[in-house]
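Hi! If you just cloned this repository, the fastest way to understand the data is to look at a raw example. We've pasted two of them here, unedited. The first protein comes first, obviously.
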Amino acid sequence: MSTWELKLYQILDSGFILFYRFLPDPIIAFFVGTFLVAFATVIIGEFSISLAFLANREYVEGLNNELIKWNNLSVEAIEAGDKEAYKSCNDQANNIFGKVFFISLAYAAASLWPVPFALGWMQYRFQNIELPLPVSLPYLGQTAGYTTIFILLYILARIIFAQLKPYLPYFKKIEVMLAGYVQERTKLKSFAELLKKAEDKKIAQAKSRNRSMPSNKINLAINSKFQF
């Protein structure tokens, strides 16, 4: 462990260790304290994402609008039978989709950056300590180290935070913004709609032909179907 890491963990220790002092029982206090550390890393990670999102909001909105535009143009081009225009528009849509995908991936990864620091601090504090689990788990048995316990409690903290998010004013505001993008994506035209439109057109044309067919021809057509 380098000098700067040691100094960092000593600073974190002054705050994180307080989470372990709420209860007198050392085992229960460890689980409660580790859960609170995990919950703090979830909040810090989510707050970091929100700041990155707000800083790049105009760029993300621009990509979102460009994706809708080029996707819809490619669908309209294939509907018009213009293969060259379709290829050009589809290439643009794929290019922008790649940018949107990697930005989403970067945001997801950014939420995890506090985890290595929390685990580093736990190594500084609880290295080589095995703790009894409340129940025996497959592949783990009845004891586990700090890393396993932290990961399990981090997953639990993420689930709880996701449930609380809509009730936290700041994160609720971010959720509303993101929901707006999801709503915008409903403007994306799909090839499934194109196929449905073509199918509806065929059905309408068939009905039109049947209406224009003289009744005696319809009867003949019906009778011919039931002759064996």
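Ok, and the second one:
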Amino acid sequence: MKNKRFAIVLDTRKCIDCKACTVACKAENNVPLGRDNYRNWVDQGEVRGTYPHLGQTFTPGQCMHCSNAPCDHVCPTGATGVNADGIVTVEEKKCIGCKYCMTACPYNARYYNEEIEAVDKCTFCAHRVYQGRLPACVETCPTKVRVFGDLNDPCSEVSLLVAKYPHRVVKPEMGTKPYLYYII
């Protein structure tokens, strides 16, 4: 049986910066409170226009689950790895807290969790995905910004979206081959 290649496709035009994704992620994954502790986030673009005709864009982000993950390459203990389905993981028992992976990640998608004394990051909610559920951020989004699925399945919604719409990845010049696709 062929492995899956999990990915998320994001339509940022739908994001209203309600932060439901960040709250759901923190609750689902026991992320400690505080601004420096996060597995996902929403960046705010500049306000455009003049009053009363104003606009603003919001860009959700998280671990890009790169196929050429720099965090994996620099981990001295093998705590960071990429599983057969493309999910970048951290084994907290192997993590020594050196934070090399945090420095290597061009997306700033990792944080040091003082409570578990290890680096932490998005796992696409693997514990939910392997039970047939969606990642918490995907499930909770009221405007359905994120679509999660298997790119190796040509009939999956993520495959159809990537085939249908022009899209971009973040920092393609880094050569990390990220698996978050932003519809243009």
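That's it. A detail worth noticing about the second one: The CA atoms of residues 79 and 91 lie 5 Å apart.
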